[in-house]
Design a protein that fits this description.
By secondary structure, this protein is α+β, with helices and mostly antiparallel strands. It is 47% helix and 20% strand. It is built from one helix and three strands. A hairpin with an 8-residue loop joins β2 and β3. The longest helix has 31 residues. It starts with a helix and ends with a strand. It comes from Microtus ochrogaster (Prairie vole).
C-alpha cells in the first residue's frame, strides 16, 4: 500500500512539472525566431505565439519591412 501511494505521489509531481518544461521550449523557440517575450507587443512588433500562460503570454518580434 505504501508503494502505491509513493507511485501516485510521483506521478502527481511529474504531471505538475510537465507544463513547466513546455514554457522553456516556447521561450527557446521564440528566441530562435529572433523574438522576445513580452506582456504586450509594441506597435512595430507582431505576435508570433505564446511564451507562458501567466506572466508573459505573448512572443513578439519586429515586423519585417517588405
Amino acid at each position: 500500500m505504501r508503494i502505491l501511494s509513493l507511485v501516485v505521489a510521483g506521478l502527481i509531481l511529474l504531471v505538475q512539472l510537465h507544463p513547466g518544461s513546455a514554457s522553456f521550449y516556447r521561450q527557446h523557440l521564440c528566441s530562435k525566431l529572433d523574438g522576445h517575450c513580452a506582456i504586450d507587443c509594441l506597435t512595430f512588433e507582431e505576435k508570433i505565439g505564446g511564451c507562458r500562460a501567466d506572466l508573459t503570454p505573448l512572443c513578439c518580434r519586429k515586423r519585417k519591412k517588405h
